[in-house]
Amino acid sequence: xxxxKRIVIGDGERGLMYRNRRFERVLTxxxxxxxxxxKRVDIVVHNIARPEYNGSDADALIVALGDKLxxxxxxxxxxxxxxxxxxxxxxxxDVLAPGTRKLYWKGLVPVEVQAVSLADGLEMQADVVKRxxxxxxxxxxxxxxxxxxxxxxxxFIDGKLARLLEAGAYAFWNFxxxxxxxxxxxxxxxxEVSGQELLTKDKVSLRVNLAASIRVTDPVAxxxxxxxxxxxxxxxxxxxxxxxxxxxTLDELLGDKASLDADIFGYVRGRVNELGVEVLGVGVKxxxxxxEMKEILNSVVQASMAAQANVIRRREEANATRSLLNTxxxxxxxxxxxRLKELEALxxxxxxxxxxTVFGGLDGVLKQLVSLKQ
Length: 374
What we know:
- The protein has 374 residues and is α+β, with helices and mostly antiparallel strands.
- The protein has helices at 58-65, 69-72, 126-135, 138-141, 219-224, 229-246, 250-255, 257-272, 291-333, 335-351, 361-373; strands at 4-9, 13-19, 22-27, 30-35, 41-47, 73-77, 82-88, 91-96, 101-105, 111-117, 142-147, 151-157, 160-165, 168-173, 179-185, 189-199, 205-216, 277-288.
- The longest helix has 43 residues, at 291-333.
- The protein is rod-shaped.
């Protein structure tokens, strides 16, 4: 008949029947003939392969179905201190924010909803973290961080320190509260202070490079007592270097760099200990002088070395002269020693002569040699 409306609902569909724009009933899979002579009936067909109900009248359906709601829908209704977990076919597929109310179709895809109370803490369970990371939605609903070995993690909730974390992976629900997390390095770190233009006590301009090694011993103090502890340590190293350089002359700096390192170390350590940072060592790497000052120092060093060389040479000459004088006295007192020295001289002469003709025998040669020397 012309007044009957034929409606077909498939196996993966559900129909909602409205009369005069008011919900009347749910149509399951099947064929329906609805008497509607005045065309006041509307049928809205939904695909339940995607079980989320996407209509705008979810609240009206909840009221209209009342106790029969559970026959058609799964109701997700969470309080302001609860987070909803939606499982489809036994697998976590979605997260619902606190205060959410939502409907899911029954019949094709098994849907289960679970509530997680935020009153018990904001930390997420490891299996939930793993699944949400797989879905690519973890960063939308949580704050996550990985704390490496030899590091510490700090969690702040609404600007207040909430937890100190050891090495590991963590995630915290980011609903209703402002959650932030940071990682503090506990290993030894190096700090370089380079190219510092400074004046010594005797007004000599020089450039100094400094290196220091530090370690965080109290991550809470290092994070809460100063904005950026690395910048603070760098600035204190600058101040300590300037103070130590200005208290020494150039000769003192070049002659005893160890005392300079000790002065800077003592100053900086006293300034940063209360911030949970330990200074392990400080060392001046380079002291760079202007070109003119280098030439002057080189001249001074050369003159000093030349003077030392002259002193050494004159001392050796005096020692040699004294030795000759002692030898002469011994020869004068001993004829045998004189004879031995003559024979040594003769031996040295004969080494340089290829051919030697002797007249009068060896005694004659020696006698002539003695007479010549006399």
